[in-house]
Amino acid sequence: MAFFKEELMNVKGFAFDVDGVLSRIIQPLTAEGDPVRTANIRDGFAMVHAIRTGYPLAIITGGNTTEVRKRYQKLGVTHLYMGSLDKITFFEDFLKKPV
């Protein structure tokens, strides 16, 4: 594990889920029972930096809300897989995208 920094040179892109990964694990609910998702400013900064550096980024989430879509589009994420119940299929699609 001493050479983990060298291994990081092999990273070619990033894929994230939203709930519990880019948002809090505990979420308040609206009156309709829908979760109110949160966003971490530091995560957003890191994602913008990665995109500007040339890394492709994907969001693969089971949720399908306008707010989540707008958040990540504003950050520059172009690979948005919303309403995904089979995340592996979408992840494999993302892996096929040109770098």
What can you see in these coordinates?
The structure is a single chain. The protein contains four helices and three strands. The protein is globular. The longest helix is centred in the middle third of the chain and has 13 residues, at 41-53. Strand 1, helix 2 and strand 2 form a beta-alpha-beta unit. It has helices at residues 4-8, 41-53, 66-75, 87-96, and strands spanning 14-16, 57-60, 79-81. Helices cover 38% and strands 10% of the residues. The two termini are 27 Å apart. It is α/β, with parallel strands linked by helices. Strands 1-2-3 form a three-stranded parallel sheet, with helices on both faces.
Arithmetic mean of pLDDT: 89
Count every helix, treating DSSP H or I runs of 4 or more residues as helices: 4
The largest β sheet comes out as: 3 strands, parallel
What portion of residues belong to β-strands? 5-15%
Q: How many strand segments?
A: 3
**Uncertain parts:** none
List the secondary-structure elements in sequence, H or E: HEHEHEH
Over the alpha carbons, how many angstroms does the gyration radius reach? 15 Å
- Overall shape: globular
Distance between the termini: 27 Å
The helix fraction, in percent, is 25-40%
Q: What strand line-up does the widest sheet have?
A: 1-2-3
Structural class: alpha/beta
Question: What tags apply to this protein structure?
Answer:
99 residues, alpha/beta, 3-stranded parallel beta sheet, 4 helices
